[in-house]
Structure formats: C-alpha cells, structure tokens
Design goal:
25% of the residues lie in helices and 18% in strands. By secondary structure, the chain is α+β, with helices and mostly antiparallel strands. Strand 1 and strand 2 form a beta hairpin. Helix 1 crosses helix 5. The radius of gyration is 15 Å and the shape is globular.
Length: 186
C-alpha cells in the first residue's frame, strides 16, 4: 500500500483515484465527488448501494457552493448548521445543482461536513473542493479506527493512503437533518 504525501493524494484524486485517510473518528475512503467513475469504483470497493448517498467533507463553506443550498434552510436552521462547523457535525442539506444522483442517492439532500481535523482540512484545501468521505470498511462491517485495522481487501484496491491519526472521537460524527434538526445517526 502506497503512503501518499498531500500532493500525491491530490494528484491521485485528480486522476480519478480513491484514497484512504483518517477522519474525526474512523478512517475514510475519498474520491472526487464530481467523477462518476471514481464514485462508482469506491461504491464497488465498499459493496455499498448508490441509493444510500455519500457524505462530502470540505475545508470551508465556500467549497460546498453548488453542492448544497444552505439558503433553502430557514434562518434559525442555517445558523445552527453554520455554528456547528468546523466540527464533527454532518448535516443533510437540500441538494444544489452540482450534486448528481451518485452523491445524493435516493435523497433530496446531501450529507456534508466542514471537518476540523487538520489533515482532512488540509487535504480539502489542497484539493480545492469537497471530497467524498465514507468509512473505510465493507458494507455491514465495523469501520477502521486505526490504520492497522484497515481491511486488506480494501487496501488492495485503493490508490494509496494519507497517513495520520483520527480526530479521536469515540463514534462517527452524528448525522442530522438540517431542516428539522432530527438526529438520523447518533
């Protein structure tokens, strides 16, 4: 398994690659969300159906422009979302025109997060746009909390990994509906 520098990770993403990297609580798999072939490849690795949709992580709110419609939220809900970022809070926000079906799945929104861990934020900043972020595990199996716990079957198929430590959270980030505030994953 090739350990990548930040520049190599960005080059891999630009070439349609899939990489592993540490997130807030677990290791994630990422790719270019606008590249249908890269997302399909990632879904095949994970054995995850496209209908479930994907999470996007970003370094700042500007990177989510077009992917979501924050202005479609009532002012109090928009404020709650924005006040939680950067941080370990994933919100389902109404999808914007840049969000294709392979990102939304069967949903009308997109799960998004402005990540606080420095490595994820640096990767998104260097990449210049949001990044697909899904746990680095096969569907139905527990997510990897350490590099050593990454499934060898996944490692054999990805294009490299950006080494580092997770943000130390005990559980993956909660997912909430931005319109209602309802917790969908605690």
């Amino acid at each position: 398994m090739q350990v990548l520098t930040l520049d190599q990770a960005v080059a891999g993403l630009r070439a349609g690659g899939v990489i592993a990297y540490p997130t807030e609580a677990v290791w994630g798999l990422g790719c270019d969300p606008s590249n249908a072939a890269a997302v399909q490849r990632l879904l095949e690795f994970k054995q995850r159906p496209v209908e479930k949709g994907m999470i996007l992580v970003a370094a700042d709110i500007l990177q989510l422009d077009g992917w979501v419609q924050l202005d479609a939220l009532p002012e109090d809900r928009r404020a709650a979302v924005l006040q939680s970022w950067p941080g370990a809070h994933t919100w389902i926000v109404p999808a914007g025109p840049a969000a294709p079906r392979w990102i939304t799945g069967e949903h009308s929104g997109v799960a998004v997060r402005i990540s606080a861990p420095p490595l994820v934020a640096s990767l998104c900043r260097a990449w210049g746009q949001p990044l697909v972020s899904t746990s680095a595990n096969l569907a139905g199996e527990p997510p990897a909390r350490t590099r050593e716990a990454l499934d060898p079957r996944l490692l054999a198929r990805i294009d490299g990994l950006l080494d580092g430590s997770t943000g130390g959270l005990a559980q993956p980030t909660p997912i909430r509906d931005a319109l209602s505030g309802q917790v969908l994953r605690g």
